[in-house]
Write a structure and sequence with these properties.
Layout: H1 3-33, E1 51-58, H2 62-72, E2 75-82, H3 118-127, H4 131-137, E3 141-144, E4 150-151, E5 154-155, E6 169-172, H5 175-187, E7 195-207, E8 215-222, E9 228-232, E10 236-239, H6 246-253, E11 276-279, E12 283-291, H7 294-299, E13 311-316, E14 326-330, E15 336-344, H8 354-363, H9 373-383, E16 389-395, E17 399-402, E18 414-416, H10 431-447, H11 455-461, H12 468-479, H13 494-502, H14 520-532, H15 537-547, H16 559-571
Parallel strand pairs: 1-2, 1-10, 2-7, 10-18
Antiparallel strand pairs: 3-6, 4-5, 7-8, 8-9, 11-17, 12-15, 12-16, 13-14, 14-15
Helix pairs in contact: 2-5, 2-10, 8-9, 10-12, 14-16
Bound molecules: flavin-adenine dinucleotide.
Flavin-adenine dinucleotide binds near residues 107 and 240.
Keywords: Membrane, Transmembrane, Transmembrane helix
Protein name: FAD/NAD(P)-binding domain-containing protein
């Protein structure tokens, strides 16, 4: 073969692969990313386009509030049922979360580290047109989404060039700051008058006496009393109960999700008892929140100062046998600074004091350059403010996935979103984006009921169809399928991805019937993408896109990037 022909064949092959990759990526972004659909979020329907009747939302945290906001565009009445009564008092919707008197008792991460992906911020600006102003009003910084991402301290390149010189924005809020803002926007300003929240706990559901395929009533224990009341759920019941996953229990008690249930719903699929997959990465979170004065904050030796900054320093250790230790310094809302340590293991220390934090930071193993002096100087200064620390330790619950999209015989008007469907490793800050994807899915599924038509036809269509639940969970699966941060999209779905990454930590307790060795190649490839991203714009862009939930699952397989990674691995093994 002549050299010219050889070159032509190689170029042709590359061009073919590139074209395939580009088309598939375009398809994936359209189908799974939600980027095109968020543009239509938040468009209010005219009264004749609304569905008569109530939607009952069980749980009033992030999933419940986002679901309520979406449903307000479609339903006559939206009822949120939430056990913690103080959330509907002034304190629950206050302007500055750090002035709040109460603490959430049913949400363990209320005072832990919290980070927000840029996609989530983007979606919130569509749901709430004045979102950026409202962040400022609540003292929350909105700035370019730079989390100072590093490979064990070696900063990854910020792909500013390929982003046109401008980083898309995100918000830097504490968990309590974000939640309180969201609650104020949904419940506190009178903008969504059809949303009502009551204090209560949902204890069960009742099927329609004539058509067992529909839930007709929701059982609620009101306030702190033992009295249980039945509430008519004319339309949809949304399970937003987080890790209590109460929906599974209600469905089972009402006889759904089995082959024996007497309903017209499909009996294909998995029974309720087989829906749950879970593994335990044995992750511990220690969060130290300092309440300081502006003067002290100004004096900290942080390069460039804290003005307009959210992430200050991030160190994700590259040593799995140490439990993938993760140290960050960040600036949430208010005159506060957060120090955070995450670590997996069987016997993880609780980092409650500054001396414990210092010992940990000294022990971290950097990729190349040592941890900068200003980090230690900051620790020195903060040592004097030990009494200003509000400390939280959380043993992160097992990573769990309830595969509702494969369930048999679900009631047609039941949906679930947020942590009640899937929890992920919080290290990569995807939890609330995943919740948002659930709310977006609700919007997509509901908007299909209200396609433009004449009013007469519209009234016929504004019924919840018998396959509503199926449609919802199918779409939900697609929307949580491709936005996987830590493996930069390599895996088939987000849950799978976490399984493979967390299996790299020797302490992880795998899914029964699996072992930790699966995914070695994936972990090797991800690490090589990170190493390359320290200096390479394309690799850095893949990481940025996927860290901010803008990417697709094949981004790291761009043919040119694959070649660069293989070359880099050969040159710098
Ligand atoms: C330690 C930790 C750190 C995290 N860090 C991040 C981060 O940095 N970024 C990020 O995006 N995500 C993070 N996450 C994930 C994120 O917090 C969750 O994905 C998110 O809070 C899920 O919201 P949710 O509304 O589904 O559930 P939850 O916030 O758990 O809320 C569930 C609600 O349901 C209510 N409820 C329970 N049972 C009933 C019932 N029977 N009837 C009525 N109501 C009921 C509860 O009172 C509660 O209000 C973190 C998680 C943990 C554990």
């Amino acid at each position: 073969m002549s050299p010219l022909l050889f070159v032509i064949i190689i170029l042709g092959l590359y061009g073919f692969l590139w074209t395939l990759w580009s088309f598939y990526r375009w398809h994936l972004l359209l189908r799974t990313s939600g980027l095109s659909e968020i543009k239509r979020l938040g468009q209010a329907r005219s009264p004749h386009e609304r569905i008569n009747g109530s939607v009952v939302i069980c749980g009033g945290s992030i999933a419940g509030l986002l679901a309520a906001r979406v449903c307000h565009d479609y339903f006559e009445h939206v009822l949120i049922v939430e056990p913690e009564g103080w959330l509907i008092t002034e304190d629950g919707v206050c302007r500055y979360s750090w002035t709040q008197q109460h603490k959430r008792t049913r949400v363990m991460q209320y005072t832990s580290l919290h980070a927000c992906q840029s996609f989530l911020y983007n979606g919130l600006t569509k749901l709430f047109s004045d979102f950026e102003e409202q962040c400022a009003y609540s003292g929350i910084t909105v700035a370019g989404a730079n989390y100072e991402t590093s490979l064990a301290g070696a900063l990854l390149k910020l792909p500013l060039k390929s982003l046109g010189g401008l980083l898309p924005k995100t918000m830097f809020a504490s968990r309590s700051g974000f939640k309180t803002l969201l609650r104020r926007l949904v419940l506190g300003r009178g903008r969504y008058p059809r949303i009502e929240q009551i204090e209560g706990t949902v204890t069960g559901i009742v099927a329609d006496s004539e058509d067992g395929s529909i839930i007709r009533k929701v059982l609620i224990r009101l306030g702190t009393s033992l009295q249980v009341q039945e509430i008519e759920a004319k339309l949809v019941v949304v399970d937003c109960t987080g890790i209590s996953r109460a929906g599974l229990k209600w469905l089972s008690q009402a006889g759904y999700g089995t082959t024996t249930a007497n309903t017209s719903n499909s009996k294909d699929g998995l029974p309720l008892t087989d829906l749950k997959l879970s593994f335990d990465q044995k992750l511990h979170y220690s969060s130290l929140l300092f309440s300081l004065t502006p003067l002290v904050l100004e004096k900290l030796p942080i390069p460039g100062g804290l003005e307009g900054k959210g992430a200050v320093y991030t160190f994700l250790e590259d040593q799995m046998q140490n439990g993938r230790r993760f140290f960050t310094i960040s600036k949430p809302d208010g005159d506060r600074l957060m120090m955070f340590i995450g670590q997996s293991g069987d016997d993880v220390p609780v980092y409650e004091t500054m001396s414990a934090v210092r010992a940990l930071v000294q022990d971290l193993v950097p990729h190349k350059d040592p941890i900068p002096d200003w980090v230690f100087e900051t620790l020195d200064i903060l040592e004097d403010f030990q009494d200003q620390i509000s400390f939280a330790h959380v043993r992160v619950p097992r990573t769990t996935y309830v595969r509702y999209h494969q369930a048999m015989n679900l009631p047609s008007n039941f949906v679930a979103l947020g942590d009640s469907v899937m929890t992920v490793n919080p290290t990569f800050a995807q939890g609330c984006t995943k919740v948002f994807m659930g709310a977006l899915t609700l919007h997509i599924t509901l908007s299909r009921l209200i396609a433009p038509s004449t009013v007469g036809e519209l009234q016929k269509r504004l019924q919840i169809p018998s396959d509503f639940s199926k449609q919802f969970f199918k779409e939900h699966f697609h929307k949580t399928n491709g936005f996987c941060t830590p493996c930069y999209g390599i895996y088939i779905n987000i849950y799978d991805c976490f399984v493979r990454l967390d299996y790299g930590i020797p302490y992880t307790e795998p899914i029964p019937s699996e072992n930790l060795s699966s995914g070695d190649l994936v972990r090797w490839y991800i690490r090589r993408v990170q190493i390359l991203a320290i200096k390479d714009e394309q690799a850095a862009r893949v990481i940025w896109d996927n860290s901010m939930a803008y990417g697709s699952k094949i981004d790291s397989f761009h043919p040119w990037l694959v070649l660069k990674i293989l070359w880099d691995a050969a040159m710098r093994p």
